[in-house]
Amino acid sequence: PTMAHSQALLVLENFIGGKFVPCSSYIDSYNPSTGDVYCRVPDSGKEEVEAAVKAAKDAFPIWSSKSPLERSQILNKLADLIEHDLEAFAQAESKDQGKTITFARTVDIPRAVHNFRFFASSILHHVTECTEMPALGCVHYTSRAPVGVAGLISPWNLPLYLLTWKIAPAIACGNTVVAKPSEMTSVTAWMMCKLLEKAGVPPGVVNVVFGTGAKAGEALVCHPDVPLISFTGSTLTAQRITERSAPHCKRLSLELGGKNPAIIFDDADLSQCIPTTVRSSFANQGEICLCTSRIFVQRGIYSEFLKRFVAEAKKWKTGNPSDPTVNVGALISKEHLEKVRNYVKKAQAEGARVLCGEGVDPLALPPGNQKGYFMLPTVIAEVKDESCCMQEEIFGPVTCVVAFDTEEEVILRANGVKYGLAATVWSSNVGRVHRVAHRLQSGLVWTNCWLVRDLNLPFGGMKASGIGREGAKDSYEFFTEVKTITIKH
Ligand code: NAD
User: Fold this and answer.
1) Per residue in 428-473, pLDDT tens?
2) Residue from 226, 254, 228 nearest 240 by CA
3) How many C-beta atoms surround the C-beta of residue 128 within 10 A?
4) pLDDT at 234 over 50
5) 164 C-alpha to center of ligand 1: Å?
6) What is the C-alpha separation between 136 and 132, in angstroms, rounded?
7) pLDDT value at 181 more than 90
8) Where is the Aldehyde dehydrogenase domain (predicted)?
9) CATH 3.40.309.10 residue window(s) in the chain
């Protein structure tokens, strides 16, 4: 950036022990919709992580001894404060991530608020177990206690949404935390830190250390005083975290990538299925771990589906994320855009047909967005199941449509990837819906809908999509240590 630019740059600071602390070096952060550097993010390492872990350790005795009700009131206050500033948070998330302002306003920030409210409530309602052995004169019961300092690492696609999905249960259970958001999307976490004191969160309960995965992330993962890591991100990084944390036998929760199928039977209600499947493919630029990227359509309706699906996808407007009529914003980075485009090129080289989007339709951008990282929703047909486009997570606005004949065949093909996060099934035959849902290797199955979540229930993936689940009971179990106590009377 030029000097003129750098004067206007937003400079973030780490939040440690209740105070903003400058860092000795910084990373540039880009506005994905313009390609300009607009923000500088601390490039933290061991030293900063050490200070944050110390602050979290010091805060633990007081925070963990507060009653669930006291903690609940503080979480609710924080939710109110974020909600009060919802528009400012949404603007910041859209600018930092490239997502549309509409998505940030209606999904990201409301969900971040809800995460705090949800765990503020659920923490009041847990019960532990008790069993009796009258013949032996014994009663057994379980007791749960917070674990200590939780390390929380989150990705760039739903920045505040996913970070708060970890912070809220961790602190509701009485842990203190050191969080490291993605270096590409740190702004809303920093904005949230400004509200903690007012909400009544004591210093050191929530510490945020900004920086890269390789430096700040690994320092957190390797820190001996952080017994638990909750991570959301790619499968490759999760493997690295597992290796690095193994010498300490840490407790890990890993929410990873997906290659999610949609299975559309010939008795599906296409008037519901088509707009929902366009949304499940392209929402947030396809940068949601739950996005559909393999669409299996039963042969009898294949050509009709394809025609209507492409027509619907073409209605999605790509452009300036701050325009409320835009559906598709910018991708996170230049490198990521290149990676996503390359998948489309590979599919073409293998003989697949690109029906709309990348390389087929013109992309007209406003003058201010010419250097942004934009791509049109892209639909590819006639892709082989072995193709990298059908096997690897693309994490962009690209979806593949293929035909199938039988229920048995489609289950095998849908399960034929290394991932197992989410699937959708479209059919009006209730027996079939249950049969298929049971046989899919997938942590979540939505039938005749997508992305309808009850936070009470487990969230997470099978196979390479993760280890562990998060949700009301699951997060409570993950963020607490259980003890079985036996009393003889
Ligand atoms: P990523 O794995 O590159 O990074 C995620 C986080 O880990 C970032 O904060 C990063 O700085 C940090 N990190 C990177 N290397 C690290 C290391 N060696 N040690 C510690 N931390 C490290 O993922 P991303 O590109 O930011 O996010 C996209 C991925 O996240 C996709 O694969 C997507 O499917 C996945 N995701 C999964 C879910 C889910 O709930 N299952 C939700 C959203 C995104």
Assistant:
1) 999 999 999 999 999 999 999 999 999 999 999 999 999 999 999 9
2) 254
3) 13
4) yes
5) 15
6) 9
7) yes
8) 25-485
9) 261-447
Catalytic site includes residue 393? no
pLDDT, one tens digit per residue, over 208-232 is 999 999 999 999 999 999 999 999 9
Contact 140, 130 (CB under 8 A): yes
- Ligand 1 neighbour 40 (Cβ under 6 A): no
pLDDT the model gives residue 2: 45
β-strands 480-488, 466-467 pairing: unpaired
Domain with CATH 3.40.605.10 in the chain: 10-256+465-488
pLDDT at residue number 7: 56
pLDDT at 72: 98
Atom of ligand 1 nearest to the CA of 255: 41
Ligand 1 atom nearest 180 alpha carbon: 9
CATH of region 261-447: 3.40.309.10
Residue 201 DSSP one-character state? P
Report the CATH number of the 10-256+465-488 domain: 3.40.605.10
Angle, helix 109-122 to helix 187-199, in steps of 10 degrees:
40
